[in-house]
Each structure stands twice: as structure tokens, then as C-alpha cells.
Design goal:
The chain has 28 helices and 23 strands. The chain is an alpha+beta fold and 866 residues long.
Length: 866
């Protein structure tokens, strides 16, 4: 039992109290607390008194009476952070214009860079969702000259390669066609893709219901995508249900439903059917055809087998299987991960977008540095006072870097919001499927965080380091004279900023000039007032009957007064198939084989498209011999080395009947002007055509379209009337270049705005340093115009230096860009001068505004600054 002499406050609590309370308060506080302790013992007892004593000790931890805890090892104590934040917020409000320009410039620059990063990342993501994309290749074939590579195969090639080479794990052919599916009372025309059973092993498209392997390996089965299944069956599960194919007059059972292929997949399909259910015109007689090349194929190699090793093993395949004219060819494997770039020719575009993103980011950071310097110049006295009060240089650097990082964070947050709002527009314009999962996508999240830290630290470290190094007296007086290296660095930043702006403008002008050049060229055919309608007679069960009906339909159209002519062809200019074959010419001394691109047409094709026969004659429906005749273009004639076509006959590489050359058509552009005109051969076979071309009288186009639609509806009741003008569809060949031009234009304008804001801040900074000079000049009688010219001339020199630096870089990069085009513009000095004039004009306007403001100010205010 405790005696009164044993009752006293806990000693460990008294030691804590003595260690934290300042000496001037300790004696009084300790005495009062001891007195209160004994009163509580009498009132509440010892246990509760000790508890209340501990509570009082805790409550005494107040900043006003506790000892100061100095951190000897921390350069910047955390308790100063709140002071830095308050000071930064006050200065943010004090310099509203600088702060707003700073955040807006960095926000726009970050958003633009992030958008371009997302586009580049999306373009490079194609097919990488496939688990084995690194081991999947598309089969192609190269000719001995090494220039021609065709990524299509003959029908039996892929299965035999799969059978003969153990290092090929799986293979599948991929042949696309069309048909009309009927499910109950619902009809839907859609694309069909015929594949082998290896498709289910090669690719990882998610199965929603059913068994995909069973669907693509069992005759009489079919697999639908979710979108097609929903159109045909609504929300019901279609697996096990039967659908009818109207054209080919077959019935198939739905065995699987798969998710729609993502947009970043080069393989796009609506319906999959096994090879055993292929359209009749590609089987069974085509199963052993080593001549016609009209399908693609993919193979998966065993792990550890490289592309080069497999190509070496396949080197003997052409000699053992191909027809005589192709036995010297070589099998080439094209990686799946590069297929998107090969199809769209967009790899160069992606590189250009990456350069634009880097330029925008560079301009934004330079702009941020210049604005930070201008803003910090107004805080020189604060810096001096802090240094007098004991702040060291690392603490000041930390203070300013903290403020800059906060500004960067705000700008990044606003940039993310802006990107989120603009992203749907970008997706709609480019046809992309970029998602807004910024922080769940690893590379994107890393880019955002890294960009924020990099921009904040790099953009603030140099100005804060220089300003914190000033002497206190100099800072308090506000009289700063930078050393030469500092001045050169700031001027160098401005030069780089405007060099990047000139580069972007030159790129924009060159891209648009190239697009307009291609669209303005004489294509050697007339596609205006001509519409094309797809017929696909080959897909019907009785293609000969359907072809006769279409020919009758064509003849009826030709009788209409609003229609000038009607033609049938396998394709129309701008959409020719990549259907190549070797054709051999024999003469008395040599045998020459030329790879010709081929197309089937009728006798009205050249007339409808206003193409010129330069030698020989056109096809005639009245001459049965024209079924074994052909018309070539001038490029093919030159490839054979002919001066004329008199008595010229060629033969397919696989043998067969000789083909008489009855005419030569003037070279016309049947593909984008990015590519050169290739040797082309035209065959006469109206029954093997898929496109109807109708030319209207120029002043009766609407009337002609109405007649065509009415007659078409009677011919094909299952499908709405669909058509497209040939000249418009041809112009779409340049959509990638047009999109690139639009993108570069937008971001060049953004770069100019950001650079203009940077120059505006730089001018404000420079004029602030020279305000006494301006005041003296005003007092001595200098005119407003002379002062503005004097202050602006230095910046004009910097812009000119940036222009001189940018010109050779722009010339080099644009020459690389133009190398992708067979028919291209020439780079002229006017392009560079125009870009320089735009940048110079904008910069002088921005500087002139600041100069005029300083020139009209009362000189007394400048002279009494100290």
C-alpha cells in the first residue's frame, strides 16, 4: 500500500516534460502541474491522477512553449515546406499573368505531347495483344531482282509448307469474300473470311461462346463476331443455330461467337468459315492451283527458330513446287508486328509524329524556363531577405523547385483533363481506338509521371540555382547583372525554341504541298461523274447466271439518257487487287519473263474512264478471240523491251495458251502516286468482274443516281444501294498524308503559340533589365519608334539565327520524308522563307507589344527605381 510519502508524479513523465519545455517556462509549469497532481490524488485517487498528469503533459506540446528542434542533417526542414507553399501561393496570385501564361503554356504543351505519345504508342501496339506475335509471320514471295515482294500465296502453298517443315507449328490461309446471311427474317451482307484450323492456334481472339477450333475445322460450321451475332439474333445465344447464305445457297451452323477484333489488329473479320466451306469458285478445282495468287497466309514458327533460319530452310521450296517461271523466286517471312506499317506505310508518319511531340515538349520546357526567370526576377528582395535571415543556397533551390513542381503538377492535371476532352475527337478523326486509361496503362502512366518530374526539375533547377547564388545586397537592391554564360544560355534557349517552330512550319508546308501535288496530277483517266457499285457475281452458287443478269442490267442502264456509259471490271482505279503473275515472251533469241499485275475488264472500261489506247485496239464483245487476248500498259511494253506490239504473244508462267497482245493503253495511275506505275495487263472477261462503273452526264448526275438506285433495288432486294464516286475514293488514298498534314498544322500552331508566350516573357525580362536605359533615352529625346526598334532588334537577331539553324535540319528531314513518294515536289527556298517570315512576324509582334509598353511608361518610374 502506498504511503503519502510514496505518492508523487511519474518520474518518466517529468523527464519528458523537462526535455521538451523551454527553460524559462519549465519551473512554473512543473510546479503548477505537481500541485494539481496532488489535488487530483485527493479527489480521484492515485491511478486517475497519474492518467490526468500524463494527459496534461501531452497537451503541453504547443509550439509556443516547447523547445526548437533543429535538424542538423537536413538542408531543408519539412516544417519549412508549409512556408514555401504559402509564399508560392501568394506569389502565384501576385503575378497572375505570368502564372497563367506559365500554366497554360505548359498545359497545352503537355497535352499535345501526351496526345502524340498516345498516337505513336497506339500505332506501335498493332497485333501485340497476340500472345505469340513475335513468332507469327506472313508468307510472302520475292522475285530474283529483289525489288518486288508479294505477300499473297497460291492456294496449296501454306498447307504443304506446314506439312513439310516441322519448325512451322501452325499455319492458316486467309481468304476474304462476301455473302448475305439470313437468320429468320433478318438479312445481312457481310464479309466472309475463309481460314484453316490453324487459325484458332495462331491467334488469340477472345471466344464469347462456343468452340472456335471446332468452328474453323469442321465443315458446315461458322463463327460470328459479337456485332454480327447481335444484328442477326439480338441478345440470344446463336451457338447451335442455323444460318443461310443467300448467294452461295448453303446452310451453316453457328459454332462459336468471338469478340470483335480490336482496332489495333491488322486482321479484321466479321465471319469465319473453315476452308472446307469456302466459296465454290475457290474449290475444289483451285485446291491444287499453283498459278493464281489471291489469298494471304500466316505461319507460327517454333520457339528459338529465327526468321532468317526458316527462310534458309524454305529456300528449296520454290524449286520443288512452284511453276517454271517462279522456281527462282524466294520465300520471305514478314513479321506480324510490322504488318500494320507495311499496309498503311505509316512508319514514317509515326516517326514524324514522335519528332513533333519532342519539339512541342522542348518548346514548352524552354518557355517554362524563361517564364520562371521572369517571375523570379520580381522576387529578388525576398531572396535577399531569406539569405540575410540565414537561408542557405540549397534551401532556396529547394523552395523554388518545390514551387515549380507544384505549377507543373497543376499544368499536368489540366493537360490530362484537356487530353481527356480532346481524345474522342482524335479517335474519330483518325479512326483510332485509344483508351483514356492513363494511369492503368503502364507506359502512359510512366510517361505522365516522368514528364511531370522531368519538366519540373529541369525547368526550375537552372533559374533557381542562378538566382539563389546572388549576393544578399544585390538581391535586396534588385540590381541584377547576369554573367555572359547565363545570357548566352537564355538566348540559346530562345534560338532553339524558334528553330523548332520553323522546323514544324516547314514540315507542315511540305506535307500539304506534297498532298496537293499528288491530288492535282493528271491521272490519265477521268473519274469525275463516275460511280462504282460492287456486284461480286462470283460469290453466287450460279455465277454464270448472275453474271448474265448483271450484263443485262448493265445494258439496260446504258440505254438511259442520263448515263453516258457503263463498264464492268474486277476493280476500279485506286482499288486494284495485288494480283501478280509471271508472263513469258518468246522470241528467236531469248525468253523473257515479266511479273505483271492483272485485272479483268469489259469492252467499255477504257471508254468509261476516258483512257487512251496509244497502239492497237480495244476489246470487242463481237470477237470471240479477244477471250485469249490482252491489252498492256506502256510500262509493261517497256519492261519487255518492245518498240511495237506487232505479232507479240505471251504465255503464263505455268504454260497454257498463248495470249495475243492487241493493244497498249497509255500509262494511268491506278494506285497512289506514292508508288510508281507497275507493268499492268488487262484481260477481257466480263463474267469475272466485280465492279460496275457508271458515267453520268455532268449536268444530270442526280437524275442518273436515282435511275441507278431504282434499277439496283430490283436486282438485289437484300442489300441497300451503296455507291461511291471514283474520284473521291481515289482521293482517299492520300488520307494518311492529309491527316499528317492536319496534325502537323495543328501542332505547329500550338508550337508557335507557346513559343510566342515564351518570347513575350523573355522580352518582359529583357526590358525590365533595361528599364533605366529606356528612361534615359526617353529623357534625352528618343522617339517611341526608335526605342521599340532598339528593344526588338536583339530578338529579331535570335529568331534569324534560329531560322538559319532550322533550315538545313528541315531540308534533311523533309528530303527523307519525300523519298517515300515516287512522284514528289521539289524543295524550294520559298518554302523555308515563308516559314521564316511567319515566325519572324509573330515574334516581332510579341516583342513589339512589350517594347511599346516600356517606351510609353513614365521615365521617372524607371530612374527612381533604387
Amino acid at each position: 500500500m502506498n504511503t503519502p510519502n510514496d505518492i508523487r508524479p511519474p518520474q518518466w513523465l517529468l523527464r519528458i516534460l523537462r526535455s521538451i519545455i523551454r527553460g524559462e517556462y519549465l519551473e512554473e509549469i512543473e510546479g503548477d502541474m505537481t500541485e494539481v497532481f496532488f489535488e487530483n490524488v485527493e479527489t480521484f485517487g492515485v491511478r486517475k491522477a497519474r492518467f490526468l498528469f500524463a494527459w496534461d503533459v501531452i497537451m503541453l506540446a504547443r509550439p509556443a512553449i516547447v523547445k526548437r528542434l533543429y535538424a542538423t542533417h537536413s538542408l531543408t526542414p519539412l516544417y519549412m515546406l508549409s512556408n514555401y507553399l504559402r509564399t508560392g501561393w501568394r506569389n502565384f496570385l501576385k503575378y497572375k499573368s505570368y502564372s497563367a501564361i506559365n500554366i497554360i503554356g505548359l498545359c497545352i504543351g503537355f497535352s499535345a505531347s501526351l496526345l502524340l505519345f498516345l498516337i505513336v504508342n497506339y500505332e506501335r501496339s498493332f497485333d501485340k495483344f497476340q500472345a505469340n506475335y513475335r513468332n507469327i509471320y506472313r508468307i510472302a514471295e520475292s522475285w530474283p531482282n529483289g525489288n518486288d515482294i508479294l505477300d499473297q500465296i497460291v492456294t496449296p502453298q501454306a498447307p504443304i509448307m506446314d506439312e513439310e517443315y516441322p519448325d512451322i507449328l501452325h499455319s492458316t490461309r486467309f481468304f476474304d469474300s462476301e455473302d448475305i446471311i439470313q437468320a429468320g427474317d433478318t438479312y445481312l451482307r457481310t464479309g466472309f473470311h475463309t481460314v484453316d484450323s490453324g487459325f484458332a492456334h495462331l491467334f488469340d481472339f477472345k471466344v464469347v461462346s462456343g468452340d472456335l477450333h471446332h468452328a474453323v475445322s469442321t465443315p458446315g460450321q461458322i463463327a460470328l463476331t459479337q456485332s454480327v451475332a447481335k444484328k442477326l439474333f439480338g441478345n440470344d445465344d446463336p451457338v447451335g443455330k442455323v444460318v443461310s447464305l443467300i448467294n452461295s445457297e448453303r446452310q451453316l451452323t453457328v459454332a462459336a461467337v468471338v469478340e470483335d477484333p480490336p482496332r489495333n489488329s491488322t486482321l479484321q473479320f466479321d465471319v469465319l468459315v473453315p476452308w472446307e466451306s469456302a466459296p465454290d469458285f475457290v474449290k475444289p478445282e483451285q485446291a491444287g492451283d499453283w498459278y493464281n495468287m489471291f489469298m494471304t497466309a500466316y505461319v507460327q514458327l517454333a520457339p528459338g527458330i529465327s526468321k532468317e533460319e526458316m527462310e534458309q530452310k524454305l529456300s528449296d521450296f520454290p524449286g520443288r513446287h512452284f511453276l517454271p517461271d517462279r522456281k527462282s523466286n524466294k520465300i520471305v517471312l514478314l513479321p506480324l508486328e510490322g504488318q500494320h506499317f507495311r499496309e498503311t506505310n505509316s512508319q514514317r508518319i509515326v516517326s514524324i509524329l514522335a519528332v513533333i511531340a519532342s519539339a512541342i515538349l522542348l518548346i514548352s520546357c524552354i518557355n517554362f524556363v524563361n517564364l520562371t526567370i521572369s517571375q523570379l526576377l520580381g522576387r529578388l528582395r525576398e531572396i535577399g531577405v531569406r539569405k540575410v535571415m540565414g537561408s542557405n543556397r540549397p534551401q532556396l533551390v529547394f523552395q523554388f523547385m518545390t514551387e515549380c513542381l507544384i505549377v507543373c503538377s497543376i499544368a499536368v492535371a489540366m493537360g490530362l483533363l484537356l487530353t481527356y476532352l480532346v481524345l474522342p475527337v482524335v479517335n474519330n478523326y483518325f479512326g483510332y481506338g485509344i483508351t483514356d486509361d492513363f494511369f492503368t496503362n503502364g507506359p502512359t502512366a510512366l510517361f505522365i509521371v516522368g514528364l511531370c518530374l522531368l519538366a519540373g526539375i529541369l525547368s526550375s533547377f537552372w533559374p533557381s540555382l542562378m538566382l539563389s547564388g546572388l549576393r544578399p545586397v544585390t538581391s535586396i537592391r534588385g540590381a541584377v547583372q547576369w554573367n555572359k554564360s547565363g545570357g548566352y544560355l537564355r538566348k540559346g534557349l530562345v534560338v532553339v525554341q524558334f528553330a523548332a517552330s520553323v522546323l514544324l512550319i516547314v514540315g507542315t508546308v511540305v506535307i500539304w504541298s506534297q498532298v496537293q501535288y499528288m491530288k492535282s496530277q493528271d491521272l490519265k483517266f477521268k473519274g469525275d461523274h463516275v460511280v462504282s457499285v460492287e456486284t461480286w457475281a462470283e460469290l453466287f452458287k450460279d455465277p454464270e447466271r448472275v453474271s448474265r443478269e448483271i450484263m443485262t442490267f448493265k445494258d439496260e442502264l446504258a440505254k438511259e439518257s442520263a448515263i453516258e456509259s457503263v463498264a464492268m471490271s474486277q476493280a476500279v482505279p485506286g482499288a486494284y487487287w495485288h494480283n501478280y503473275n509471271g508472263f513469258v515472251y518468246f522470241d528467236s533469241t531469248e525468253k523473257k519473263t515479266v511479273s505483271l499485275r492483272q485485272i479483268t475488264i469489259d469492252d467499255q472500261y477504257f471508254t468509261t474512264y476516258r483512257m487512251k489506247i496509244v497502239e492497237g485496239r480495244n476489246f470487242s464483245r463481237d470477237m470471240e478471240s479477244d477471250q485469249k487476248a490482252a491489252i498492256i500498259n506502256q510500262t509493261a511494253m517497256r519492261a519487255y523491251g518492245w518498240n511495237d506490239i506487232t505479232d507479240k504473244r505471251i504465255q503464263t508462267g505455268g504454260g497454257g495458251d498463248f495470249i495475243e497482245i492487241i493493244g497498249v493503253v497509255e500509262d494511268y495511275y491506278y494506285q497512289s502516286l506514292k508508288e510508281e506505275i507497275q507493268p499492268l495487263i488487262h484481260f477481257f472477261n466480263p463474267e469475272l468482274t466485280a465492279r460496275l462503273s457508271v458515267r453520268f452526264h455532268p449536268d444530270r448526275v442526280a437524275e442518273g443516281l436515282a435511275i441507278l438506285e431504282k434499277k439496283w433495288s430490283a436486282l438485289d432486294p437484300y442489300e441497300p444501294f451503296k455507291y461511291e464516286f471514283v474520284d473521291e475514293s481515289f482521293d482517299r488514298l492520300y488520307k494518311e498524308q492529309e491527316r499528317l498534314g492536319t496534325t502537323s498544322s495543328v501542332f505547329a500552331c500550338i508550337a508557335l503559340v507557346i513559343a510566342g508566350m515564351g518570347l513575350f516573357s523573355m522580352a518582359a525580362y529583357s526590358i525590365r533589365l533595361r528599364k533605366k536605359e529606356v528612361g534615359i533615352r526617353r529623357v534625352l529625346g528618343a522617339s517611341l519608334r526608335s526605342i521599340v526598334v532598339k528593344l526588338s532588334s536583339d530578338f529579331g537577331v535570335l529568331v534569324i539565327i534560329g531560322f538559319i539553324i532550322a533550315c538545313p535540319v528541315a531540308w534533311y528531314l523533309m528530303n527523307i520524308f519525300l523519298q517515300d513518294f515516287t512522284y514528289r515536289i521539289q524543295l524550294t527556298p520559298w518554302i523555308f522563307l515563308a516559314a521564316g517570315a511567319i515566325v519572324f512576324t509573330i515574334s516581332m509582334v510579341m516583342v513589339g507589344l512589350q517594347s511599346r509598353r516600356a517606351a510609353v511608361d513614365n521615365p521617372v518610374n524607371a530612374l527612381r527605381d533604387e
